[in-house]
Amino acid sequence: MTIAITGATGQLGRLTVEKLKPKLPAEQIVALVRSPEKAADLGVPARAFDYDQPQTLAAALAGIDTLLLISSSEIGKREAQHAAVIEAARQAGVGRIVYTSLLHADTSTLGLAGEHLFTEKAIAASGLPYTFLRNGWYTENYAAGVQGAVAHGALIGASGEGRIAAASRADYADAAVAVLTGTGHDNATYELAGDTAFTLADLAAEISRQTGRDIPFHNLAPAEYGAALLGAGVPAHFAELLAAMDVEIAKDVLFDDSHTLSKLTGHPTISLADAVKALIG
Length: 281
Prior knowledge:
There is one protein chain. By secondary structure, this protein is α/β, with parallel strands linked by helices. The protein folds into two domains: 3-135, Rossmann fold (3-Layer(aba) Sandwich); 140-164 and 195-256 and 266-280, UDP-galactose 4-epimerase, domain 1, CATH 3.90.25.10. The chain has helices at 11-20, 57-60, 78-92, 113-126, 143-152, 169-181, 200-211, 222-231, 236-249, 260-265, 272-280, and strands at 3-6, 29-33, 46-48, 66-69, 96-102, 130-135, 155-157, 188-192, 217-219. The strands form two sheets. The chain has a seven-stranded parallel β-sheet with strand order 3-2-1-4-5-6-8, sandwiched between helices. A two-stranded parallel sheet has the order 7-9. The two termini are 38 Å apart. Keywords: Oxidoreductase. InterPro entries: NAD(P)-bd_dom, NAD(P)-bd_dom_sf, NmrA-type_oxidoreductase.
């Protein structure tokens, strides 16, 4: 069995490769990256794989049994990039595609959902066996917010009392490895999220507990939150995106209590206390 991972030098990709290595011979793990020289430290074969050069992709997938397609980081370009990868996988005779999608992609009101749902439909239409890993939020998404809260004495956002069932990247990588190396996952869709949800007020309370300081959560109007992000140096388009996402997070779009993630991995997801400890550093 040969498993290939796109974006293998990215944060989730690296974790997945490292967690696969104890389970498979290194030669059966292939890192697919734009610059193979940057993957030398992974200790597995690396192949050039550039989403924006679709004519080269099928050759790079030769001999691959299972492809882990980690969603592209280029929001707005994902549909074209993912479609190119899926067609290349079909041409190369890849046996299965595992795709990292978004929690409740078919019903989510997050602006990110459309590209993920497009990709799921394209994979299903390809005729290849698939598994959709609908990943929820990463606890690491709050690294800047937590560090900013410690520095300035308050956590800010616009998500109100929205519940966030986040888990660590390591938790999601463990789920990917379980599916990549296990059986019985063909044409399955898994909603993956943390075992225990929290609000940003809960997050602020845990930061306060660990620092011994009173660090409240200030729930701002979306425009005010976007302006605050802009003032902190966040690029305008990204600040707008983050503020818009918080509006939807307030509606519980990141909540899931199925515990599917911990069932797949066989261990609890990261606790809020451990997540905050890691983020404070």
